[in-house]
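Here is an idea for our session: we take a single protein and study its fold together. To get us started, please write out a protein record for me. Start from the sequence, derive the backbone structure tokens from it, and show both lines together. Go ahead whenever you are ready, and we will take it from there:
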Amino acid sequence: MRGVIVKDWSKINWDRKEDRKKVLGALQYFLTLPDKFAHFKGQEKEKQLIRKALQEFSTKGDFPTSVLDIIDKYHLTTGYDNGYEEIFDIRDFSGTKKSGFDLLDVQSGLTFEKVDPGGKLKVYSISGSKVHVYFDYYGGALGWHRQLIDDEEWWTLEDNAIEFRNKAYAYRAQVFYALIEALDSSKNVAWQNPEPSGLASTDPSYIANRDAQTINKAAVEILTAIKDKGYSVNPVNAEMIVLTPLALKGRIRRALGLMLQPMANSEKFVDFNFRMITTTLLSSNTQYYVILPKNKLKGGYRMDLKVFSDFDILSYTDTTAGWMRYGGAIGDSDQLRRCLIS
């Protein structure tokens, strides 16, 4: 039988230790492919090296054949939320021995000013603090009863493995979204009044109008707060993220698309370059976030999803445990605003 993780399950003899070892190896590659390709996004040379390594994974008897089918058909199909990777500046620490990474809050007080001929520049001192962000361990385990193997229920095994992978990466996403949701209430933006102020509440665009004004205000507050921090941000064309719970997707989409005039090519109500990211992993459906991504929103992956397997003779079960290690932090809360909808 052709599968996703193993190309030809009919060549498996589960009683052979070497076969079990190679199935575990195929499972390992399958579980870590999302991060492998994230690390090498747009780098075809590195991707080819991964493909070559997977080809060498096969034996003379073509068991199991390379898992290139996974790359070709499945590496672009994610069953989990990875939108947070467009918000946080994620670094790959998988090849290091680091316990975490340092998040610096450095201020120099540097300003540029006119200097008359023969004058000297002022020298400004640098000050700041350093916070160490530790990589934590996260794990889960899956038990495969040998009945599935004895009865050759390969699809059930693969479905369980796919679910295992999706849940591991979904939980990592939830950890990063929780950092955003922990934002202090001082960064809240109230639901703004419509423009024009006399717009009736019965007007079809009333809610979208107020939401658009709220999004604009959040962006202005962010850009004003970070203007002297040395970020590479052009307020005219900087892209900002609107992180939205699924329940508000339609509402926020209407706000971002609201036009000043009911005609083609009219300007939008929103004044900046916004892109919406929708997630089901926020705990509240009554608020959303406007975010200036990257800069001091940092994250690191220390260990990709790694699996270990053992057989429990008392329960006739193969237990597979998966472990990941990662961490993240918000180094500057001025990059975020929480927006209210009423």
About this structure: The two ends are 55 Å apart (CA to CA). Residues 1-77 form one domain. Residues 154-181 form the longest helix (28 residues).
